[in-house]
Amino acid sequence: MCPPCCSSDGLSVTLFFSLVPPKFTQIPARVSVVCPGQSKVFECQVTGTPEIDIYWFKEGSEISPTDHYKMAFVNSVATLEVCGAEVKHSGLYYCEARNEAGSESCSMELKVKGVLNVHCARITRALNSKQWFPSNKDSLKIQAAQTEDEGEYVFEVVNYISSCTCKVKLISNLCLGVLLATEQVIAPSFIKPLVDMHEILGSFVQICCKISGSLPISVEWKKDGTKISSGLKHKLIQQDNSVSIEIEQLERSDAGLYSCKLTNAAGSCECSGSIVVKGQTLLFLTRLDDAELMTGPTCLIGLDGLSCFLELYSVGVTQSGVYSCQVSNDAGSVHCSANLTVKEPPYFTESLEPMEVTAGDAVCLKCQVAGTPEIKVSWFKADGKVRSSPTCKLEYTKGVACLKLSKATKSDIGEYTCKAENRIGSASSSCRLNVLGKTSFPEYCVYTFSIGSSAVFECEVSPSTAVTSWMKDDSNLRESPKHKFTSDGKDRKLNIIDVQLSDTGEYTCVAKNAGKEISCTAKLIVEDVPGPVKNLQVTDTADGEISLAWEEPESDGGSKVIGYVVERRDEKRKTWTLATDHAESPEYTVTGLQKESKYLFRVCARNRVGSGPTVSGLKYGTKYNYRVFAENAAGVSEPSNIIGPLLADDPHGEINDVFSLGFCISSQSSTKAGTLTPLSLLQLVQALT
């Protein structure tokens, strides 16, 4: 680390010191054994740069102070006291010391065991016996011992605390007893497993992990699944509770996945970590040396009596640095130094660029400034200085100046200037902001046209350079004799020639400009006159009047029926007389008729487009000629040959020919004229099928 420099009269002094990581100079014994109820104190002496923090762990979990655990760190000695030890306190403990420079740890094992009395089994000889006999003492009797019975026999005793074994070796009738106590075996585990590493090509690398578990522990290292052995390339180290691989000089081929496997009598475990080799750090092959200044075009060295001076011409930032003056004579030499700082005015490393946006878009005018701090940045527009507001934000961070508009409008059009100033001078950069009109359309509209007319859809787009296309019910329309497209400046038109019912639908104009898209939609409804009314008949007659009734037309032509037109004609005349043109329901009584006169009647439905075709009633006792049409979903057939003349009151019998036409007589009386109702086309088809 380096503290601030101390300076006096142009001289500067810099002090350097380095941090020393913690190191244990004294650690407890590897294994400690106590009886239940006893206490055990572990002491570790640590050196290193303060402040040092001490942490205690048991089986990988950090220990906190309790009634059973007391901790202290005084005079560089870390202590852990296990009070009133119990069997559950057995295990592997380790102490870790940390400071800013690094960390170090050491481990120790505590065993809490009770007293176990074990008596060695005795070997005796007995006749006709070769089995275990139950008794207060376990024993093994070998009948007629032979030479091949020589060897080592093991007797094991186990309780809830621990286990012990007794070994007896039988050699030439000599019984030797040895009492061995077996230890509790703890499976290996990783306190600090391997981690992924990024190292520099050619550097020294140590791949290390901290372990715990009962010894002996075997360690196996692998790289990308291949076993690693200790040699010139890799140095395998196992010390205390650390295992590691050292690579003296890292090569690109050393990159890969490394794994470490631990094994002892209780089990095994494994961890892995990768190494990524980065490019080599840049080094100076040739270092700069101090140079002596000589008088020349850029500087002048002079001596005036006892004063010497150095004049620099046209100085720039590159002339900044520490200048030293050395004076020598036969008695020795002295020197002094001065630091020269060259300040420079602001300048733009990235200037403002012209910008064109659409109204409503966010805007960011940005430029980059360099120069000697402190630099003050201001923004100007033709009408004066620009200031921050809810819609305009001015920012200057790390040499980058920004003017941000949340939503551009026409009033924002103009030339913007960024001015940078410091104590040395100033600089400016300018650009023009142009705000295009936002492409817009009217709201959703519904237009109604009658059959045979021309429908025109018209909209205005801004700017006029916007590209437009037309769609009907989400399908693209192409220009044709039926559909005509017109573009004139900002005006866009779609003309539909000879409108038919099939032209009903939604029409959309899509405009694209500067990578943005907008659309508007209008609906076309095609209307026609209503269809013919059905089943016109005389319902009643009275003195000078006749009541008529009929059924509504099957089609209203796309517009609501607003009334019915009823006409009458004397059979002796050729002209029709209007009885009414505003019958509101499908029935009407015609008045003002002359006695002993014969009349014809016809009725049509009316909507706002006009009146539909008329349907006349048939006159009783009159002969008529008929033609028959057939209709299905595909259309209407050609007409049949003329049938007739037929008398309206003739009975025609059964229908034997598909082109015959029958009539329904609604009523027939000697006192009233019977009325005939012609079958509708649908009724006719059903009757003939």
UniProtKB/TrEMBL annotation:
One of its GO terms (cellular component) is nucleus. SUPFAM superfamilies: Fibronectin type III (SSF49265), Immunoglobulin (SSF48726). Residues 532-625 form the Fibronectin type-III domain. It is found in: Cytoplasm; Nucleus. It comes from the Eukaryota. InterPro entries: FN3_dom, FN3_sf, Ig-like_dom, Ig-like_dom_sf, Ig-like_fold, Ig_I-set, Ig_sub, Ig_sub2. Residues 22-111, 188-276, 346-434, 442-519 form the Ig-like domain. The keyword Disulfide bond applies. The keyword Nucleus applies. One of its GO terms (biological process) is heart morphogenesis. Keywords: Cytoplasm, Disulfide bond, Immunoglobulin domain, Nucleus, Repeat. Belongs to the protein kinase superfamily. CAMK Ser/Thr protein kinase family. This is TITIN. It comes from Neolamprologus brichardi (Fairy cichlid).
